[in-house]
Every structure is written in C-alpha cells, then in structure tokens.
C-alpha cells in the first residue's frame, strides 16, 4: 500500500521491504496491514505448494479501496454541503419575498404593486414570455389564414348572389305575431343582351301606345275587345271557374288541334282569299300585340 512491499517465495520465505519517508510527504501509518499480511503469509508457508496458487485472503481493505471510499465520502460530503447551501439560499429568498409581500399588503393603495411584479426567476420569466410570444404568433397566423379563406368564400358568394341582384330579397317579420312575414320581390340585374331586348320591347310598347292614341282609343292602353278574348289553348287563369285545368298539356293541345280540324272539315265552304288574308293579318297583328303585352 505504498508503505511496504511484501513477497513470498515458494520455499516459504517472506520478504518485507519498507518504504522510507521522504521530506514534504505524508508520513506512512504503522504497518498494521503488513503485520496482518505477514501472519497469514507464515501460515501459508507451512501449506503445500499446490495451495500457494490460490489467492491470498486479506483481512483488511487495500489502499485502492480506501482511496475510492475516501473519495466517495468526500464527494457525498461536498454534495450535501452544496445542497445545504442552496436550500439556505432558497429559504433566505423565500423569507425576503414574504417580507416584501407583507410590506406590500400594508402599504397604501397608491403604492401597492401587483403580485406579478414580484418576480425572482428572471430567466424562467423571459423563457415563458418568449414561449407565449411564439404561441401567440402561431395562433395569429392560423387565424389570418382562416380569415382569408372565409373572406374569399364571402366575396364569391356576394359576387354571385348579391351583386347580381338589382333588388336584394328582404323579409319583414312581425314582432307581435309569429310566422307573419312580408317579403319583397327581388329583381335580378340584366346582362347586356337582356337589357338590349328589354329596351327594344319598351320602344315597341311606346309605339303601340302611340298607335292606340292615333286610332282614337281613349281611357285604355289595350286595343278594344282584346281583354275579352280567350285563346283556345288556355284552360286556367282566365275564366278559371268555368274551365277545368288540364295537367297534361300535350293532350290538351292535341284535343284542341283535333277540334280545330273537325270544325274546319264540317264548314264545307271555302272563304274568299281576300277574307282569309285579312283574317291572317289580323291574327298576326293580334299575336304580335299579345307578345308585346306579355313581354311588358
């Protein structure tokens, strides 16, 4: 153990070499370990040579074990000392904080501080602030993306459903009566082709009204006798109580055509060409006027 060197020969002789002390070095302890080892060695000297190959039992620890144990104990003591120092420092800070809080509670209202202003862990506070800023930026970017999508959808709906209407659909709900609603009549905006057609119909109607006035019709905007006429292919709206409606329009048209042909065949006499031509012109004019009135 750096204080003595011991060797045992096969013939049972034991050699003990002592290490002299040098100046400036720690003095070696007494040879307690060497003496104990020497006693065991003498017992082994009388043993058979075959038993000498077995390891020599020691009654005490070696110098390496003592050094490791001493280092471990020293590290444990240092760690305990540091832990005690840190605990004392934390206790001192807690004591100061409690004193500041008590002083703040007893101070006037104008001098009182908020609890958040008593911050001790500045590093943790800065880290928390940075994390909150990053989270806020993330949430802000997500909200902006969602708002952009909603704005795009809203713009498209407005362009297709609101901006295309000249008069938007609106409803008035009664306050004192449930399910009492009055709605207006929405009007769609006309495109260029439809606007040109509407303007042409208006001009035709103006010309028709001038013809009425020129023909001497006063007090009415319809040609005389026109409002009392009922077309053959109309089964409702006009004289609704007299004619039963037909659901199958195609069958109604076929029946009206068959009746017209039947009436034409039963007449037997042909009308003069001039009379037929005049009736055709009247029917054409009546059809154009009906079209003007319907489009108006």
UniProtKB/TrEMBL annotation:
<keyword id="KW-0853">WD repeat</keyword>
<protein>
    <submittedName>
        <fullName>Uncharacterized protein</fullName>
    </submittedName>
</protein>
<dbReference type="GO" id="GO:0005930">
    <property type="term" value="C:axoneme"/>
</dbReference>
<keyword id="KW-0966">Cell projection</keyword>
<feature type="region of interest" description="Disordered">
    <location>
        <begin position="254"/>
        <end position="296"/>
    </location>
</feature>
<keyword id="KW-0677">Repeat</keyword>
<dbReference type="GO" id="GO:0060271">
    <property type="term" value="P:cilium assembly"/>
</dbReference>
<dbReference type="Pfam" id="PF25828">
    <property type="entry name" value="CC_Cfap43"/>
</dbReference>
<keyword id="KW-0175">Coiled coil</keyword>
<feature type="compositionally biased region" description="Basic and acidic residues">
    <location>
        <begin position="254"/>
        <end position="281"/>
    </location>
</feature>
<keyword id="KW-0963">Cytoplasm</keyword>
<keyword id="KW-0206">Cytoskeleton</keyword>
<feature type="compositionally biased region" description="Acidic residues">
    <location>
        <begin position="282"/>
        <end position="296"/>
    </location>
</feature>
């Amino acid at each position: 153990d750096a204080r003595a060197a011991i060797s045992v020969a096969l013939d049972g002789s034991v050699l003990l070499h002592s290490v002299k002390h040098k100046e400036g070095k720690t003095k070696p302890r007494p040879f307690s370990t060497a003496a104990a080892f020497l006693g065991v060695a003498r017992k082994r000297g009388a043993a058979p040579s075959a038993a000498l190959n077995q390891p020599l039992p020691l009654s005490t620890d070696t110098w390496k074990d003592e050094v490791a144990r001493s280092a471990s104990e020293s590290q444990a003591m240092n760690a305990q000392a540091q832990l005690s120092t840190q605990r004392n420092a934390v206790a001192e800070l807690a004591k100061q904080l409690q004193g500041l809080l008590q002083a703040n509670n007893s101070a006037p209202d104008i001098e009182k501080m908020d609890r958040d202003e008593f911050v001790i862990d500045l590093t943790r506070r800065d880290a928390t602030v940075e994390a909150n800023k990053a989270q806020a930026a993330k949430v802000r970017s997500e909200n902006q993306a969602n708002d952009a999508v909603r704005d795009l959808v809203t713009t498209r709906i407005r362009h297709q459903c609101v901006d295309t209407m000249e008069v938007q659909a609106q409803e008035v709900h009664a306050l004192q009566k449930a399910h009492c609603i009055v709605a207006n009549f929405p009007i769609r905006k006309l495109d260029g082709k439809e606007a040109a057609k509407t303007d042409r119909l208006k001009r035709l109607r103006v010309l028709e009204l001038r013809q009425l006035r020129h023909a001497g019709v006063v007090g009415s905007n319809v040609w005389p006798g026109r409002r009392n006429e009922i077309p053959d292919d109309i089964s409702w709206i006009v004289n609704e109580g007299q004619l039963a409606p037909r659901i199958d329009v195609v069958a109604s048209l076929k029946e009206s055509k068959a009746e017209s042909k039947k009436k034409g065949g039963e007449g037997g006499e042909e009308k003069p060409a001039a009379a037929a031509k005049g009736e055709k012109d009247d029917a054409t004019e009546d059809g154009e006027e009906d079209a003007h009135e319907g489009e108006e």
